[in-house]
Fold each of these.
Amino acid sequence: MNKLYIGNLGENVSPMELENLFKDWKISYTGQFLVKTGYAFVDCPDESWAMKAIDTLSGKVELHGKLLEVEHSVPKRQRSRKIQIRNIPPLLQWEVCFAFDILQSKCF
């Protein structure tokens, strides 16, 4: 998979700015940048270019005053689903554990 997710973008980041950033760091990409509010996607020619982009840019380069987050893009259907339960009184802790035990055959 050579598609990259570029996160932590400012609202006003344009595809041209991302293109210039990749060119400045000499990172090859294919196609156009798909820019949404706060994030973008881009394809790299192969795995080595994708890893170079991640190693070079992620957490190290700023754009509009924000550090970029660059990682492999993961399709929605392959993402793990998380359940978050908060504010449980201590006396009910075992009941939640029991419910998880039934659902996942293990207790956290």
Amino acid sequence: RIQDLGELSDDHDTVWKIKGLSHSIMSFLGEPPHQRKHGSRYYYMIVYLTPGDYHRFHSPSDWTIHHRRHFPGNTHPVNPWYSIFVPGVLSLNERIVLAGTWKGGHTYLGT
């Protein structure tokens, strides 16, 4: 289910409401493979997969993947209680981020 969606703030760096806590987009995605354009509008969508869901990529649009980046890391729990004691836990965990383009411009998908 969609947990949150909206437009990013002017600094393009923080998304709120990921399990009730704020997280840095640049920490999660790493440096984007394209230059961000001043004045561009950026949007995000947080999709919650329940523990019974399998972990595969699901795409909300038809797009072309240009770059895949693997971030080695831990497998810390991401529940709100644990996140209080381990700030930025999403950026510490192992993840994959896909970067590409669709008809609306650049897009990223991370697990």
Amino acid sequence: MATAEKRVVRDGQTFIAATRRPDGTYRKERRVREGYVPQDEVESYESRGARRTREIAEMPVAGAPPKAAASQTAPSTEGMTKAQKKNAKRKQKRQEKSSAPDGVESVTGAMADVSVSGKKT
């Protein structure tokens, strides 16, 4: 029962109210002790190691700009190593090359200028 159960206090005892199943039948009212938490609502156990791993993954990388600022600004070469600058230039050239007109258009234009003669030489 993943839904919140309605608790009723009668004569100093606590009851979980009767509920309706998906098939239309009713569950009986159940008497429970004070402080009882149904098994479906109990938080699952997480070991210290698993908790630590999750917390580390959520931490920002030291020295890295905040994620919001990094996505809005263009990459600058300031603070980059020589190899990083070189790779950035390569990436920019690849992007320019892919956005350039396709080679098929230039070949098609050249083919229009070519003429074929029926004579053998």
Amino acid sequence: PGYCNKKIWSKMEGSLIFRLLVLLAFCLATESNKTRLHASSNFLDRAECACKLKGGLDDCSCDVESIDSFNNGKIHPQLEELLQRNYFRYFKVNLNKECPFWYDDSRCALKDCAVDICTEEVLPEGMRQGREKPKYMTDSLKEKEECDEMMELSTVDHTLSQESQDAFIEWTEYDDSQLSFCAMDDEDENDMQYVDLLLNPERYTGYKGESPHRIWRSIYEENCFKPVQSTRPSYSPSIVLKKGSPLEGLCLEKRVFYRVISGLHSSINIHLCARYLLPDGWGRTKWGPKLEEFKSRFSPESVGPEGTARLKNLYFVYLLELRALVKAAPFFLNQTFYTGDDREDVEVRQLLMDVLEVAKQFPYQFDENTMFQGDPKEARRLKEEFRQHFWNVSRIMDCVGCDKCRLWGKLQVHGLGTALKVLFSGDIIGRTDIPYNKQFHMTRREIVALVNAFGRLSKSIRALEDFKHLMKKS
């Protein structure tokens, strides 16, 4: 009996130990799963300072929380109101240009890819055919009349032949192209048409597959900079943050180029995730945030640490465009923002001034003066190379096969290109004081693109807050 009792106790003891081991393993697995889920659901909260770059920008004291608070609580609501106004809601664009780099017959046939073009009747009076240019020329004509009165007192013959006047126009166009970072559509092209941005919102259209992948491959692999020793496609998003990343071998200016492209790419992806086509069970169209799509593009489980890097780059390009708006403020002070409705024009101008005043208050401004420094000759060469690379990116937008995607791609790339023009135009490398730069000017389309592009970045950062709440609920 004693032996039997010992045997029974031994079996009970073994069974108890086994159960304890199973329970311990279950607890560890559960805790591990909780940790993994917590890490996944809170990866947005772990994003570090958006402007952590090697070089001069390493010393910035910004953080994502400060930018979120500033954007979501201060400037974003004002931008939303401003972009509802006629001056900024109508964008003139050519959506029928041929792709200049490759033959592409992959135009999206889905109805959500289509763009609704504005008819003449719905446009504000000042934007209708034949009425836009004369108004914008009013101030210049007045100055010319005053100048002509003074010139009558002069005995010097200042008349010019038609040939000379045509040559001056060509020279001016050439000078403008040297200041521009974008291949802008020609205002006189027959296919130029106004689009109501509010009636054609940026959202997921179903445009996917090889065509959009080819666009981004061309931008990253052929137009972003590579270190001399690299023989691989250096800017494939899948290798940006790995050890030995090609970014480590690049100067500040070339790293900045990559980060603004990556940040723009991230912003566009966030827009598509925030306004995704969702089934509602009744056969009707419903648009809303899709958390699974967002995670597939940014979560550590899907893309590793690159997701956080992509979000950092969004904050980086946000700071760059914010700085461009602040720097362009003296130029905006002299604009009338004409639409043909005097009351509306005054209100739009005041709304923009309010936005600029808030923008000036943000203490962590992008410092463009750290770029294109050193030997003047080398700095000029590098800036021109920078400009040409972005110029090519703007031309690639005409290869996008979805009209709505092309519209928003062109607008945001042109807006970013205008920001670069504001920051880096002029004869003095690195620094340009716009109030004293007589050459500097912006067209109406550049103004509309710049403000709308910043509005898109602001919208993306605001959308991140919504995705944070969705992750906590899930």
